[in-house]
Design a protein that fits this description.
5-stranded antiparallel beta sheet, alpha+beta, 3-stranded antiparallel beta sheet, 4 helices, 2 domains, 206 residues, single chain
Length: 206
């Protein structure tokens, strides 16, 4: 009886979510005031602060995490379990399926990138911060003396050529890719490249 109530509740929540989303869907091409418009490919770079030659801060948001998708998926699984009558046959298998779905959701929240920020200060260096959907943060600071250059590089994948911004590091030598989770397009990266070059290498910036 308890499983019947639980599965029915999950199914009804999913149905309500589908109806609510359809009633509140934006018309194509229209966006609410202040809404972040995500381009079709790659993230959009937003300037947070900019003091030419001294300081710059940028933010790129990842694709929004859709809790609606997970609710709809859960509702579909609940409907399937009802149809199969699994809740009447083996409680342990049903509990294992629900636990697996919960763990998958937690893993998605843990690794899903919400936004990436780049902070550049002429006398200190560069700080990269990644914020995940779960609220977890990961930061990397590179002192000014450890940086040699900034470049726009290209990488070949199985399906396309990806353009990305990278810091050239010294001691040890190597590249540190920027915005490596959100992948802004080249036309978004070029203004960032020029601004950061003026801060890190004012003598070579055009």
């Amino acid at each position: 009886m308890l499983w019947d109530i639980l599965l029915l509740s999950v199914f009804l929540v999913g149905i309500f979510n589908i109806v609510f989303n359809r009633l509140n869907r934006h018309e194509p091409g229209k966006h609410s005031k202040g809404e972040w418009r995500r381009p079709a490919r790659g993230g959009e770079v937003r300037v947070i602060r900019l003091v030419p030659g001294r300081l710059a801060e940028y933010e790129v948001r990842g694709a929004e995490f859709s809790i609606s998708l997970w609710l709809n998926l859960t509702a579909a699984i609940a409907a399937l379990l009802f149809w199969l009558g699994l809740h009447l046959q083996d409680d342990r298998l049903l509990a294992a399926l629900l636990a697996a779905l919960t763990l998958a959701l937690l893993a998605k929240l843990h690794f899903k990138v919400k936004r990436e920020t780049l902070l550049v200060e002429s006398s200190l260096g560069v700080q990269l911060t990644t914020v995940f959907a779960s609220g977890r943060r990961s930061s990397l600071f590179l002192a000014r003396g450890r940086l040699r250059d900034l470049v726009i590089a290209e990488a070949l994948t199985m399906h396309q050529v990806v353009t990305y911004l990278a810091l050239v590091r010294r001691h040890p030598d190597g590249l540190v890719p920027l915005f490596r989770h959100t992948w802004p397009r080249r036309d978004q990266l070029e203004p960032v490249y020029r601004d950061v070059q003026r801060i890190l290498s004012p003598e070579t910036a055009g």
